[in-house]
Amino acid sequence: MKGLVYGGPGVRTWTEIPDPVIQEPRDAVIQVDAVTICGTDLHILGGDVPEVPAGRVLGHEAVGTVVETGSGVTGLTAGDRVLASCISACGICRFCREGGYGQCLGGGGWILGHLVDGVQSEYARIPFADLSTYKLPEQVSDEAAVLLADILPTSYEVGVLNGRVQPGDTVVVVGAGPIGLAAVVTARLYSPAHIVVVDKAASRLQAAKMFGADTTVLAGADDPLTTVRALTGGLGADVVMEAVGTPQTFELCTALVRAGGHIANIGVHGKPATLHLEDLWIRNITITTGLVDTCSTPKLLGMLVAGQLDLGHMVTHRFGLDEFTEAYDVFADPIRTGALKVVLSR
């Protein structure tokens, strides 16, 4: 079969690789029916995640069909259509028992496309399959379901819940990529008074408006601080979410938040960012970071089935599985291509 193999910083190849096999009793093997590319994959290719070795198959977001299960898998059978979560969970360690699956001590956490081969391939091995997959109802399309593998639970848990968005809040999202847009969608569930989105790409700001942003700010042309202060009587935002992963965007978040407000860092950072404690210590600021646990995935799937989450415009580009090279080129250059989420299907 073929898979997308990381060859070191800046190097990726769609090439022949060995078929996956059951290695542990709790494994399953799936046929990958739909898969997407994450901003984290771009960070890996940029050398920001040194734990990923050359030769690793990338990817952690897929929908597939079960073709084989290990002897320890009890909830899945061949032919089941499933969402493969970006987070794997042993289910028995301290963190898993508390719902903190992202910090699993039993061999799980974020391992797909990171510490073990991922799902950007024709078939994939899914460890801890009973707890790391979700059976999908017929009315949910592959394209909609694959967005639940990572971006929606990440934005909801690490952004909205960690940021403690409340009704009437002014919320700022810095970065209008897929994670930032998913943060807009899920923040709206809490009835904030204003959602402001900051980005340097006009096409992504247009998408932010489509997904529910009230105000957009084109970075480099407009001043985010002036906009936010005008909306809040000079106070600053109640909640600011960092959805890019650069020192500059993190430091912008610290300037936009009000005294007593929350900064929820969602972005993946590959370089140090300065924390200006000399300014922040006196302002009662709460800063949270986090890796998604995906404990919210069943709830989000239920809302998707009920029509409470509108994801119809998130996927902008579609490819066949053998078009990974082109798909990466498009996804990595959103200012030129207008790409939000790309989906590759069998």
Automatic annotation (TrEMBL):
Q: Which InterPro entries does UniProt cross-reference here?
A: ADH-like_C, ADH-like_N, ADH_Zn_CS, ER, GroES-like_sf, NAD(P)-bd_dom_sf
- What family does the database annotate? Belongs to the zinc-containing alcohol dehydrogenase family.
The source organism is Actinoplanes sandaracinus
Keywords (A to Z) from UniProt: Metal-binding, Oxidoreductase, Zinc
What protein am I looking at? Alcohol dehydrogenase catalytic domain-containing protein
Q: Give the cofactors, semicolon-separated.
A: Zn(2+)
Q: Which residues form the Enoyl reductase (ER) domain?
A: 7-344
